[in-house]
User: What shape does this take?
Amino acid sequence: MSSAVELWQRYQDWLYYHVDLGIYVDISRIGFTPDFITQIQPKFVKAFADMKALESGAIANPDEHRMVGHYWLRSPELAPTEELRRDITETIDRIEDFTQKVHAGDIHPPTADRFTDILSIGIGGSALGPQFVAQCFAKADVPLKISFLDNSDPDGIDLVLDLLGDRLSTTLVLVISKSGGTPEAANAMKEVEFAFKKAGLDFAKQAIAITGVGSALEKYAIGNNWLDQFPMYDWIGGRTSELSAVGLLPAALQGINIRDMLRGANLMDAATRNEDMRQNPAALLAMAWYFAGNGKGEKDMVVLPYKDRLLLFSRYLQQLVMESLGKEKDLDGNTVYQGIAVYGNKGSTDQHAYVQQLREGVPNFFATFIEVLQDSAKTHPEVEEGVVTGDYLLGFLQGTRSALYDNGRDSITVTIPVVSELTVGALIALYERAVSFYASLVNINAYHQPGVEAGKKAGAKVLALQKKLVDTLRSSTVSLSLQEIAVKIDALDEIESLYHIARHLHANCKILFEGDLSKPMTLKLMLIPQ
Ligand SMILES: O=P(O)(O)OC[C@H]1O[C@H](O)[C@H](O)[C@@H](O)[C@@H]1O
Assistant: This one.
């Protein structure tokens, strides 16, 4: 353990500061040594070269044979073709034009002068960024209030629709899906379309699609004369799409300054092109992650923003980091099982939940504190002489950082001056680039997600099995056991799945059970006519 004087010196030696953004990155509480820096230097030479190639339009996602262009969204001049440059700038202009017309009431729902609400339908990268940004800039008097449907959960859908109530007639529905075929988003859309019909409303006149060119959703939107649509490009991944139409349209509609978000990202991008690792905040983060987890993700990343508005940052980063870095194979086909687990909510709230374990339990993590210097735009009363609530918040952050470090738990601290469009855009860009660098350091493709497909395919198989089970019961005049059904449909090795499906149908009043609920093989099943 270093002395306080040595630590203070280490802090100053490694402190990064972005002059225009007022953002600091402190990696002094990660225990790397000068030797480690020397060792990792060549890996960064490769990482910087990879990044140059990626930004100039190389096929950086080889498995899907795609370019990776999210950095062009805020520096269109870097895009490799004139067509791409035009696409990016025209889309931003169209978003602003559309937003201005919605706010002015020039575009309005059929039965009212103004839209009052946005209902954003999408999942994963088509939801996490918009949700994070909405929470960052939430306020009482937004031009349009946003709600989200990001699941295939009927009860969750009921709640959101109930809360909208009569305002459904003045709700602008954004259906966001790059592929245009993700079942959760498609289901939620169908449910909302149904709710519109039930309320006697014309869904198409209030619906916008944000989707990939040529997708099923695009065809559906065009075929049904939806209000409008905005493009998603195949060279942007869902998890890096916040600064594309996916994030910018909902943000602009909520009155968030999207030009400032883009400018913040642009400034951070410029800083993270610096090939002097010590002067590059994303390289510093990637280096610190590499050291902390031994280049193998041996330690989890606990993200603790001490600011309520940044609550969803850890959830946003969970997808960005884990879907990008969590890979079985490296780029040479070796089995590597890479990844960094990310979790966290916010401080000081989490101090009263799991920080006990962080401080004293399994030392399998490093923390990332996000500090916001400005307490609030308003002045606040003193809660003690000379002390306001914001002073407490800083005290808690500093206290936890020291308490963890004193017990051998490392941390990074990212400090932003204020939660603004500029700094939020910059934070997104900072972590996007850190993920890109880390992927180069460990030689993996950060831009595909082959593992997600397995779950999707298995899910589709369950639905196919459900159809067979229901058909079998429908064509039977007597009740049947699981064994009998499995034999009939030649699915003996799926009997456990059949049981889970039957139990769900039973709980939803579609199947009758006779027998002992604690002994699945005693059950006799019969379909309840609907
Ligand atoms: O935008 P979509 O095509 O609907 O995709 C939504 C999400 O679903 C997939 O399963 C991917 O793993 C995510 O990366 C993606 O963001």
Remarks:
- The longest helix spans residues 450-474.
- The pocket of 6-O-phosphono-alpha-D-glucopyranose is lined by residues 123-126, 177-179, 182, 185, 238-239, 323, 449, 452 (CB under 6 Å).
